[in-house]
Fold this sequence. Notes:
Chain A has helices at 5-13, 20-27, 30-43, 55-61, and one strand spanning 3-4. Chain A has 62 residues and is mainly alpha-helical.
Amino acid sequence: MHQDDIDKALKLGYNWPRGLFEVYGRDFTAKDVVSTLRRMSDLMPDLREFYEPDPALLNEAR
Amino acid sequence: MPERILMIGFGTMGSGITEVFAMNGFEVNVYDMYRDVIPKSLEGIRWSLNKLREKGSLHEDVDTIMRRIHVFDSLSNAAKDVDLVIEAVFEDPKVKHQVYRELEGYVRRNTIIASNTSGIPITYLQSVLQYKDRFAGFHWFNPPVLMRLVEVIKGKDTSDETANVLMDLARRVGKEPILVRRDVRGFIANRVFGVLSTQAFILYMRGIYDYRAIDSALIYKLGLPMGVFALTDFTGGIKLSYESRNLFEEIDRVAPETEPSKGGLAKARAVVFSLIEKMYKEGRIGIRTGKGFYEYPEPGKWVRPDIPRELADRVNLLDLLAPMVNESLRMERLGICTRMI
C-alpha cells in the first residue's frame, strides 16, 4: 500500500479520487515535469523562480 | 489519552469537531465568548446526528450523545479538569494569543492545547505560552463529521509526545491524521492545493488557457469534484484571500521561516493577488454576489456552472500539475512530510 501524506491530504481533505503521486507515477515521469517547468519558465520569465525545479525533482529525473 | 475535552469557539468548525468527539464517547466542554452562536450550533449538531442516525451510522441515540456536550458561561469553569483544549476561535493571532494567556492560568501543566487554525504558524501561536511543548496545530476539514483528514502540526517548540497524543486521538475518532513535521505556510493539504490554484490562476491570467478549460480538465481528466475556479466561487475564495492579506503580511513579518520556497511562491502569489484584488473590488466574489468567475442565477444561489467537457482536451494536465509535483517533492526533501513507497 502506497502511503503518502500528500496523496492522503488530497484524497481525504480535497476529495480527489486519486492522489497526486498516483497520477504522477502512472501518467508522467520526473523528466516530463522538469521539461514542463522549463517551458513555463520560458513562457513567463518573470516567474522563473516559481518554476525552478527543486533538487529533489532533478534528482528523480536523472 | 485525553478523556475530557474543552472546545473553545463554537462556530462551524468548533461545533463540528465537538460533534465528532461526543459521537465517540468523549465528554466535551464548550465555551464561546459569543454566546449567541451556541443555540444554533447545538441545533446544527443535533440535525447532523439525526441524519447520521437515519443512515444507520450511529449506534447510540442522539440524546445520549448530546448529553456529552456541556456548555459553560465562563472559561475558567469550562477549563476545569480538562486533558485537552481545542481552540477554534476567529483566525486572528491577537484573539488566539489572548485566549491562550487566559487559559494557561486555568489548566494543568500537562493539559494539551491545540489550535484548529488553517493558516497561522504554530510557532507564532505557541510563542505566548509559558509551556510551549504542550501546544500543536490540530487542523480539521469542513465538515469534520464527514472529512477524514486531520493535520497535526508541530511548531518549533511542540514536543513529540504532544503530537503523538493528537495523532492517536484523531485515529481513535475514526480520522486519518497526517503529521506535519515542520511548521510551513498552509501546512500540507492547503499548501499543495494552493500551488495548484496559483498555477491555474497564472495560466489563465497569462492567456495560456481559459478558466473554463482548466476547470474542465480538472474535472474530466483528473476526476476532481470541482475545478479550481468553480471552487473559488463556491467557497468565496476571492473575498477570503483579499481579506486575509493583512494576516499574511503579518505572518511574513513575524515568521518568515515558515515559507521555505524562497522567492518563487511569494512572487507567484503576488501575481495572483492582483486578479484577486481586481475581482474583489468589482464585487465578483462568487456565489454571494451572483458573479465570480462564473455567473449564478441570483446572489447566494448556487448552481453548478456549465463547463463543457470537450474543453478539457485543450489542456495539457501536466501544465497544471508540474508546480504541485515540484513543491511536493520539495516538501518531502525538507522533511515536512513523508512518502513511503
